[in-house]
Design goal:
The chain is of the alpha/beta class and 1191 residues long. It is built from 42 helices and 43 strands. The radius of gyration is 41 Å and the shape is globular. The relative contact order is 0.09.
Length: 1191
């Protein structure tokens, strides 16, 4: 079976990933064995290292066990700076080279395969982590290396027959590992200052036996049981092997009006795409899965809630067991988002069926975390302990009393004074009756609409767009047919009368030509003067004998035509009547449901289905959900009562029957259970008694619906076990957002494919059609897309596409549309209110703050202290504006994200200095703290204002942000109202064309007022060889400074100003001062921006273009060089490599009077600034578009 091979492959990949890390903390290192450098070099463990524990739990005849040895291990240096550990964010230890080995009972080491470098220490990475080399360098070395890899049987044979070969074999393996480090890692690390941060570990190397452990233990164990017992698992088979070839378009939502029987809330209906997704989802057959492609803000969670509500209600209607619905994902952040939604986003209603009738139940979801997290999770969520706490006699009596009391208020006509169990049974029956009645209304609506729609189409097909005119035309056609028939009949009678009047004498002499001719003339004259036109056309000379017969035939045909026209008219009137009848039935059914369930949403004479269907969501379907809630509460009470005295012991039972019954009882209280893919197998485990002892097994094929959320982040091997427990899967995610964390190298991956028997996949590794299932390339989302039989939109990936975006303002999501969604998202929120003045209280939807900072790469990460302080200062200064615009405390309204962990720490430190509380502060409640983290910290969440710290500067730019589209796609789409990037905008403007940063830079320039003003921050890196900077705080001080520089500089002056205006130069006499400097032999150069000087709100302005050209002409005539450069954002004056002023002041265009003259500031540095000045100029001159010359 092919799917069994994939299960084996995923199992081995998980085991390898669990044991092939290269980055460790102290606790993880303490769990590994140390082996000395001598033992490693000789390839033989000493007596202390080979203590026999390695062979615990092994068969008595086992000759060798497999293990990993981590060589070249390093530990973090203890570097203290300003009283804090400088490299505190770094991992405690790095041991990148891993040697897979066999260890014999005698302690000898044999190579099991070639040494490799752990994937978590190799670049490229999708996270900011320390790396020791690149995948490319390691692959290049290993492709040319030769290592003898031995199987267990080969080791056994060597130990028995040729033990003297051990030294030769091990020396080759050991030297290969040394050469791997020297060739692929050493230079890479030296270039990055690795030795300044780490030192060689005194513990030597580390060893660990390969066995299932840690978070993947139950997943691996489940895979092992699958391979051993070979159960029938249709969904896992689909997951492992299915690639759908004949995809179908999404079924029309009209067909599912009565299938979509429940809705999760009364405030808003399902969006169109959510409705399509529900239509396709509810029809999934056992063993199948569907992909729901959910870009940011398109209502993935809302869809999940309504799908769960419908499935729960459908089971209630059938009066069977509740469906076991489990939502899972790969990490705790993702599942926490789901469980929060189940606690907060289901509607509770306002009428008699509102709220829960069972006390202490606060959410519609349960959370089953890893056992180690149970205690903390129980403080916020309904966990195992919560469910177990409900199943006791005390709570049951209290719950029954509360339930009956609230039911009596909702259904006062019921007699509920009998025994509690009888009362609950009566309530259950009544609730089910209400359920049936409500769903019958949906069936009636669907039936009447389909009849109406069928007749409507027929009506307009037959009667056209103007039915009245069509009927009138057909009435006239019938009248004409009647007249024609009448005239034909009259003509026939006239003809016969003519023939009857013919004399016998004339008939006798017809043989005479003259008589015959005269008769023909008379008949012809009669026909053309007395008979109708049809008769005239029928009549021909010399055909008197057939004329009457032909005239009779014409009359018969005309009578047929008349009958046909009569039938057509009757059919048209019948069609119209049937249409009117169906229209009345449709209207009546709508009015009946309006009268019964709420007000009329329709503003047209005939209700439109789209509007009615959405009204049904928030009225009838929502009521069905509320009824289902209480129906299942009644069922839970009755199920608990049926346990009798055994109720208190149910939590301890682990057999299949008891476990499954417990699952069903839990689903009666909460329609969905949430867990991680790592924790779920543990919660699906049971015990079976076999051959006189208990064995661990799992509830394979028992989850009715598995929902995998954020599936683009879930690696294939992690979810395989979860698929084995389920019958159907709803896979929701977005391949354009954060990808799975990869733990294996391609070489290890190919080895596992070969070992599992997937040799064709391994041999065609780079181009295999099974790419989605590879742990190094694929994801659960890609697998679901491949297997999905529905293709909703031809320009999107297979599956259903949720298109309507409601989270962000249109400007914000337009960036994501351009970046990676090809315009498929439909913005629904609307455009932001755009500010018209620089100091407006309204923040832009897309804004930027230019910061002249300096990026520094150290401690394995990149940071920009100036940018971090600028963000904190800006937040401090704008706290009141932020809280006024967004209506909540700054800490809840704002999220700050950055690609780099070192920058996270810098921002948090700067914020704390400004009394802004950040998450994970020891003394702060996270609910009252601002989220500051890498992009992953806001995955699945959102804030009204998101600040992105770009970090890179012209001192150190990098491509990490542009590796793919996911980072900026996630970061930007987290912002509901405003996304503001703090950056050295020069680096964005000069990013590669078409890259994520370049697309963002272009969009930020759409409106002139997207720019925010920030005060300059001292550059600590410039202070070591320079004086403390002076502040320039208004227009007068700036002009005085620039005049001073122009008067006293000796060699060169470079003025960087995004805008340049001739009238400003004249008014301030700066033009004359520059001329004098040039005459003294000073080189004066001006750098200004093309876009800012030639456009207004991103539109070309020919008047501004002309003004720029005139200004350049005047300056050039005076010997001043003017460069028009793309992407100038800095505002800097530099002179003689010893003077530099940098800040927010537009030197050659700023207002010198009025309200804006005192708001700009700059910092003036003096001293040894050659390197800094050259760095700034290097970003301008190479990127120069044109050297301006007079026109």
């Amino acid at each position: 079976m092919e799917w069994m091979k994939w299960a084996a492959y995923w199992r081995n990949c998980l085991a390898d990933a669990d044991s092939t890390k290269g980055v460790f903390n102290r606790k993880e290192l303490a769990q590994k064995r140390n082996i000395s450098s001598f033992s490693l070099r000789s390839g033989c463990l000493n007596a202390e290292e080979n203590d026999g524990e390695l062979f615990n739990d092994e068969q008595a005849d086992a000759i060798a066990v497999k293990a990993h040895i981590w060589t070249f291990s390093f530990v973090k240096r203890n570097i203290i700076e300003h009283g804090k550990q400088k490299n505190s964010a770094l991992p405690d230890s790095i041991a990148p080279i891993i040697c897979p080995v066999w260890i014999t009972r005698s302690g000898r080491l044999y190579p099991a395969s070639a040494p490799f470098v752990s994937r978590d220490t190799l670049a490229p990475q999708h996270q900011d982590v320390i790396t020791v080399s690149t995948v490319e360098q390691v692959d290049r070395f290993l492709s040319n290396a030769s290592v003898q890899s031995l199987t267990e049987s080969a080791v056994e044979e060597l130990e028995r027959d040729n033990p003297e070969q051990h030294s030769l074999i091990w020396d080759q393996a050991y030297n290969t590992a040394r050469d791997l480090y020297a060739s692929a890692c050493q230079t890479y690390l030296d270039e990055r200052g690795f030795k300044d941060l780490y030192e060689v570990s005194p513990d030597g190397a580390y060893l660990e036996k390969i066995e299932a452990s840690g978070s993947a233990f139950h997943i691996i164990n489940a895979y092992d049981l699958i391979r051993e017992n070979k159960p029938t698992l249709p969904l896992l088979n689909t997951y492992a092997t299915c690639t759908c070839q004949n995809r179908q378009p999404c079924e029309d939502y009209i067909t599912s009006i009565s299938k979509r029987i429940a809705h999760s809330g009364e405030a808003f209906p399902s969006a169109d795409a959510q409705r399509d997704a529900l239509t396709s989802t509810l029809d999934i057959e056992p063993g199948k899965m569907i992909a729901i492609n959910g870009p940011p803000g398109t209502g993935k969670t809302t869809f999940v809630l309504s799908a769960v509500a419908s499935l729960w209600a459908r089971a209630a209607l059938k009066e069977g067991e509740p469906p076991i619905i489990v939502a899972a994902s790969t990490n705790n952040q993702a599942v926490t988002n789901i469980i929060e939604a189940f606690g907060n986003d289901f509607g509770e209603g306002k009428e008699e069926f509102a709220g829960r009738w069972l006390p202490d139940v606060t959410s519609y979801g349960g959370y089953l975390p890893a056992r180690s997290r149970e205690k903390d999770a129980a403080k916020k969520y309904q966990t195992n302990g919560f469910y177990n706490g409900l199943e006791n006699r005390d709570y049951l009596d209290k719950a029954a009393h509360s339930f009956i009391e609230k039911a009596a208020l909702a259904m006062p006509h019921l007699d509920l004074n009998s025994d509690p169990k009888l009362a609950i049974e009566a309530i259950k029956i009544q609730l089910h009756t209400y359920l049936k009645n409500a769903t019958k209304e949906l069936e009636k609506i669907q039936h009447n609409w389909q009849c109406y729609e069928k007749k409507r189409k027929l009506y307009y097909e037959n009667l056209g767009n103007d039915p009245k005119k069509t009927l009138e035309d057909n009435e006239r056609a019938l009248a004409r047919a009647k007249i024609k028939c009448k005239t034909l009949d009259k003509s026939l009678n006239q003809w016969r009368y003519l023939l009857s009047k013919q004399s016998i004498i004339e008939s006798f002499f017809l043989f005479l030509p003259i008589v015959k001719k005269k008769r023909q003339a008379r008949i012809k004259h009669f026909v053309h003067t007395q008979l109708c036109k049809t008769a005239q056309l029928v009549y021909q000379n010399d055909r008197e004998q057939s004329f009457e017969k032909e005239l009779e035939q014409a009359l018969i045909e005309q009578k047929h035509t008349l009958a046909a026209q009569n039938r057509r008219l009757r059919n048209l009137y019948q069609c119209q009547e049937e249409f009117f009848d169906c229209q009345r039935s449709w209207k009546n059914s709508c009015e009946a449901v309006f009268d019964k369930y709420g007000s009329d949403p329709n503003d047209k004479p005939t209700p439109e289905l789209d509007k009615i269907d959405k009204w049904l969501d928030t009225h009838v379907r929502f009521l069905v959900f509320r009824l289902s809630v209480h129906y299942w509460e009644a069922r839970w009470l009755l199920a608990c009562f049926s346990l009798g005295k055994d109720i208190d012991t149910q939590a301890k039972k682990t057999g299949e029957k008891a476990s499954l019954a417990r699952w069903h009882r839990r689903m009666m209280i909460t329609p969905c259970i949430v867990s991680t893919c790592h924790a779920l197998p543990d919660h699906m485990s049971i015990t079976r008694y076999h051959e006189s002892k208990f064995h661990t097994d799992y509830l394979f094929n028992h989850i009715d619906w598995l929902i995998v959320d954020e599936a683009g982040q879930v690696s294939p091997e992690v979810a395989g076990a979860s698929m084995s427990f389920a019958k159907r899967a709803i896979v929701i995610g977005d391949t354009q957002q954060i990808q799975p964390i990869r733990s294996l190298t391609s070489m290890v991956d190919q080895g596992n494919l070969t070992k599992a028997g997937l040799t064709e996949v391994a041999s065609d590794y780079e181009k295999t059609k099974d790419m989605a299932r590879l742990v190094t390339r694929g994801s659960v989302m890609q697998i679901a897309q491949q297997a999905s039989r529905v293709h909703h939109h031809p320009d999107a990936e297979p599956g259903i596409l949720l298109r309507e975006h409601r989270r962000c303002y249109d400007d914000i999501i337009e960036y994501c549309n351009r970046l990676c969604y090809n315009g498929l998202l439909i913005p629904k929120r609307g455009a932001a209110e755009h500010k018209t003045e620089i100091d407006s209280e309204c923040f832009p939807a897309l804004g930027y703050a230019h910061v002249d900072g300096a990026a520094i790469r150290q401690a394995g990460s990149t940071s920009n202290r100036v940018e971090a302080i600028a963000i904190a200062n800006w937040l401090r200064d704008n706290r009141k504006r932020i809280e006024a615009q967004f209506g909540e405390p700054l800490e809840q309204a704002v999220g700050v994200v950055t690609p780099f962990r070192a920058q996270v720490n810098a921002i948090k430190e700067a914020c704390q200095d400004n009394d802004i509380h950040c998450d994970n502060d020891k003394n702060n409640d996270n609910k009252k703290s601002m989220t500051v983290g890498t992009v992953h910290s806001l995955q699945g969440a959102a804030r009204k204002l998101v600040i992105f710290s770009h970090v890179y500067s012209r001192h150190q730019d990098g491509q990490f942000i542009d590796i793919d589209t996911t980072m900026l796609n996630v970061a930007v789409s987290r912002a509901k109202d405003s996304f503001i990037i703090f950056a050295d905008m020069q680096t964005l403007a000069h990013a590669r064309e078409g890259s994520p940063r370049k697309i963002l830079a272009d969009m930020l320039l759409w409106r002139d007022n997207n720019a925010l003003r920030v005060d300059p921050v001292e550059r600590s890196d410039l202070l070591s060889n320079n004086k403390k900077p002076q502040s320039l705080v208004n227009a007068l001080e700036h002009d005085q400074f620039l005049h001073y520089i122009l008067e006293y500089s000796k060699l060169n002056i470079d003025i960087v100003s995004p805008w340049i205006q001739a009238h400003t130069l004249k008014k301030t006499t700066l033009d004359q001062a520059m001329k004098k400097a040039v005459k003294r032999g000073v080189k004066v150069r001006i750098y200004t921006d093309r876009h800012f000087n030639t456009t207004q709100n991103n539109r070309y302005n020919p008047q501004k273009q002309q003004q720029l050209e005139n200004c350049i002409a005047e300056l050039s005539a005076s010997g001043i060089d003017v460069y028009v450069v793309d992407g100038v954002h800095s505002k800097i004056v530099m002179a003689d490599d010893t003077h530099m002023a940098v800040g927010s002041y537009n030197w050659l265009s700023a207002a010198r009077q009025g309200r804006y003259s005192n708001i700009e500031t700059s910092l003036y540095y003096s001293g040894q600034l050659k390197h800094e000045c050259q760095t700034h100029l290097a970003t301008l001159v190479p990127e120069m578009v044109a050297e301006a010359t007079p026109t």
